[in-house]
Design brief:
By secondary structure, the protein is of the alpha+beta class. Helices cover 29% and strands 28% of the residues. A hairpin with a 3-residue loop joins strand 4 and strand 5. The longest helix is centred in the middle third of the chain and has 14 residues. The chain starts with 5 loop residues before the first helix and ends in a 6-residue tail after the last helix.
């Protein structure tokens, strides 16, 4: 699991002091075969349970930063989640943010599980085992 280094924290404080906004660390940024850039936010957490609906989400500041990046620079953001029951699922954040959502007391924006689609091709069993053992591949 990656952690902030002291140097990264120092630079982050300096950037904030200089007035930089929407400072973000996407998990992955990649360019597809057509030359389009994408930002991927990857989560492996338990599913949020109703009310109001079962789903997954991310911190409100992450959502707003990723959407601003998309609007201003054309880098589309995608939320990829390892759901303990379904496996890997994903959805573009702009589509998720236009549908039903729920904000938790902790500032996490939850999106309904049925708004995601299954991701094919990942080694699901290995990653599900890793999620259940605290991130250690077994």
């Amino acid at each position: 699991m990656a952690e902030w280094t002291e140097a990264e924290e120092h630079v982050l404080r300096h950037l904030r002091k200089l007035g930089f906004q929407h400072i973000q660390r996407p998990d992955w940024i990649a360019r597809d075969k057509q030359g389009r850039w994408w930002s991927f936010e990857v989560k492996a957490k338990e599913r949020f349970e109703p009310p109001p609906f079962a789903g997954h989400g991310l911190n409100a500041s992450q959502l707003h930063s990723r959407l601003a990046l998309q609007v201003e620079k054309g880098i589309r953001a995608v939320l990829v989640v390892l759901d303990p029951e379904i496996g890997w699922i994903m959805a573009p954040l702009d589509q998720l943010s236009n549908g039903p959502l729920h904000k938790t007391r902790n500032g996490v924006i939850i999106f309904p599980i049925d708004r995601f689609r299954k991701v094919e091709g990942l080694m699901e069993r290995e990653f599900i085992d890793a999620a259940q053992t605290g991130g250690v591949l077994v």
